[in-house]
Amino acid sequence: MIMDETALEEIKARMLAMEQELAGLRSENALLAASIRARHDGPTHKRQLSGDSGRNDAADRGTANEARPSYDLVEAQPSRRALLSKLGTVAAAGAGLALGAEVFAAQPAGAATGVMLFGANNDAGTDPTSLTSSSGLGTLTVENTAQTFAFYAKANAPTGASLYVMNESSGGGVNSFCRYGPGLFGQSPNSLGVYGVTGAKSALGPVVAAVVGDSNTRAGVAGISDISAGVVGASGAGSGLGDYNTGVRGEGSAARGVSGYSVSNVGVLGQRGRSSAINGTGAVVGDTAQSGIAGVAGLSTSGPGVSGVSQGFSGLASGAVAGVVGDTNASAVGVAGFSKSGAGVLGRSIGASGLATGAVAGVVGDASTVVGVAGFSASGTGVLGHSATQNGVVAQSDSNGAAAIFATSVASKGRGGLFRGADDGAAISLVPASLATHPTSGQTGDLFVDSGGRLWYCKTGGSRGTWTALA
Asked: Does residue 144 carry a pLDDT above 90?
């Protein structure tokens, strides 16, 4: 008998409905079986389930040979052949039955639609499982009262995520609270422990780290705290120039690697060992109480170690190679050093002279074989010394025959030295010596004032120079 298309579709729909109903019965049957097994295995129901156990104790008094009721269950997962046999009476004709068999054959053999079993392994095969609710208290609550995890997720795919969370409202994707341990713990032997993305992924490429925050428009990772550190980074390995083993590392190809910002306090604070307990303010502050350790150190192989700019670049420091470079385009100071009991600024070259130990000055230049302090100017004063109550410039030499001050001019008709005093003072003052007359030796051009106030001029120098009294 040939059936029309409408009848075939009706039979298909009926067979599908019966299959779904049977799947529900299977799940209920499995629950009943689990319940009976639990009772059977319990301490008060440890009895044989067959009817010929022969047991006859005080708890089970009755007819001595009374057969116990059988707990045999119907088949939990009937075969398709048995299913078709049981449903055969429903089909209107042989063709309809054959069609029903075809419909059932097309369904997955491992379909797991039904009631979830607690305390047992549930396998949905290739079918996804979803849970939807409109409860205001949450869709799913998981609690473990033992000392172990409450929720465990595992993915075997090389690039799959164990847990994927999406929140389309203004709340967080994952809100985690833990009283004693980590609120959220992520671990991976070869990849990211925790990976968070806001907006869309950036174009910076993959980074392998315990926690990675990624965004093409906003902050990758943000830490916020009212009374403590927003983000704490710790590393047990030693850190060096270009070394990645650091507490916090910032990297940028065209933007800032690390940026610190504060409205009324330090922007970035670096501390080595114990704090110096000195309250300092600034965009960047380095702090340490360890002897011989710099609060802030700048290192460079081809440029300034530290470059400081005030109010703008002067354009004069371009290409400067120095440990510290101070630059300004205004009337401000490029580099300033302050001290209450020592040197405000100490500059040292090649090695220590041994003469600057304990020197108290605004600027101290120290060198073993080269110039300690040098001043250069194209159109102004190279070195300027000024004092309100003391000498403007003081010079001293410990070498025999050397001059404390040596001045020379290479300009045409230039003067080696130019001295001017006040209108009522001398331009040059020669301090009288303790000798009663001129010395035996001298250099041509020497001027000498003896203890009696007489002025002598050395006309011919040598070990026995010729001296002439001028006054």
From this structure: no
Alpha carbons 246 and 288: distance in angstroms, whole number: 18
Q: pTM higher than 0.70, yes or no?
A: no
| Token pair of 209 as six digits | 């780290």
Which long-range contacts does 93-98 make (Cβ < 8 Å, 24+ apart)?
Answer: 93/1, 93/3, 94/1, 95/1, 95/2, 95/3, 96/3, 96/7, 96/11
Asked whether 467 and 444 are in contact (CB, 8 A), the reply is no
Confidence of residue 3 (pLDDT cuts 50, 70, 90): low
**Within a 10 A sphere around the Cβ of 113, how many other Cβ atoms?**
13
Inter-residue contact 10 to 16 (CB < 8 Å): no
**DSSP calls for 38-97:** HHHHSTT----SSTT-----GGG-S-TTPPPPP-PPPPSS--HHHHHHHTGGG-SSHHHH
**What is the tens place of the pLDDT at every residue in 183-229?**
777 777 777 778 888 778 877 766 777 788 888 887 778 888 888 77
Kindly state the helix (H) or strand (E) to which residue 467 belongs, with its residue range. strand 466-469
Could you write out the DSSP letters of every residue in 3-23?
PPHHHHHHHHHHHHHHHHHHH
